[in-house]
Amino acid sequence: MIDKTLRVVLAEDSVVLRDGMTELLGARGCEVVAAVGTAPALLAAVAEHRPDVAVIDIRMPPTHTDEGIRAAVEIRATTPGTGILVFSQHVETAWASRLLADGAAGVGYLLKERVARTSEFVDALHRVAGGGAALDPEVVTQLMRGGRRRPVDALTPREREVLELMAQGRSNRSIAAALVVSERAVEKHVAAVFGKFGLVATEADNRRVKAVLTYLAESGT
Q1: Quick check: is 2 in a domain?
Q2: Which of 16-20, 55-59, 204-208 shows the lowest per-residue confidence on average (mean pLDDT)?
Q3: How many other β-carbons are positioned within 10 Å of the β-carbon of residue 48?
Q4: Of the candidates 25, 136, 6, which has an alpha carbon nearest to the alpha carbon of residue 82?
Q5: Do 121 and 19 belong together in one domain?
């Protein structure tokens, strides 16, 4: 029987989800010592509170790409006594591999849509805090395939649509009109594509061209 009060730092950029999870975990006997919405705030909260476990979403402000899991890797290195539970809709194989480079002890990676019961989630939290592992089978499968996956394979359907329109020479405004979304949403998708392709900003920034060339080369177009 689990009787230890678990001290948790929660990192989730959605205010509604963050508040809901805080209430849920409190009702299950956990103490949420900090609930934050950005990666820098997460790092500060972990340094201040030294929680038993940090629950971390992958995509957080400002780019909504991989800030959360980058922070998780940093926490793993600097605060090894804190368990890490990545809780997301996405599998980021490159960063997940880095997170698990020294073994899976004290690490969890669960997909939001595949957690059927609250009790399963809380059990996973305790297991990770105690030095165990909690990895969704889908995460394990993708990690095993990771060495053979192309960057294009990591794109979501929407990111692929945006990239296809970029390849047609369209601007973000034109892409937004074609997909009936906001220009800000397109900017987020473009940033995600750059991140997954490993394209960093330079003084002569031509990442759009490089992204399109990568797409054309890997898709055989």
Answers
A1: no
A2: 204-208
A3: 11
A4: 6
A5: yes
Answer for the pair 66, 195: CB distance below 8 angstroms, yes or no.
Answer: yes
Helix or strand run (H / E) with residue 32: strand 31-36
Name which of 177, 192, 190 is nearest 89 in CA terms.
192
Please check whether residue 204 lies inside any domain of the structure. Answer: yes
Q: Does one domain contain both 92 and 16?
A: yes
- Burial bucket for residue 191 (CB in 10 Å: 0-12, 13-18, 19+): middle
| The two structure tokens encoding residue 41 | 């705030």
**Position 202, amino acid:** T
The reported pTM is 0.66
pLDDT at 169: 80
157-173 per-position pLDDT tens digit: 899 899 989 887 889 99
C-alpha atoms less than 13 angstroms from C-alpha of 167 in its C-beta half-sphere: 17
Find the range with the poorest average confidence among 6-20, 95-109, 124-138, 169-183: 95-109
Q: What angle do CA 220, 153, 193 make, to 5 degrees?
A: 95
- For residue 3, pLDDT beyond 80: no
Range from 161-165, 178-182, 184-188, 209-213 carrying the lowest mean pLDDT: 209-213
The stretches of 28-171 forming alpha helices (DSSP H) are: 39-49, 67-78, 93-99, 118-129, 137-145, 157-167
Q: Is the peptide bond before 62 cis (omega within 30 degrees of 0)?
A: yes
Q: Given CA atoms 21, 22, 27, 31 in this order, what sign does their dihedral have?
A: positive
Tokens for 215, please give them: 């797409």
CATH number at residue 82: 3.40.50.2300
Q: What is the mean pLDDT of the chain?
A: 87
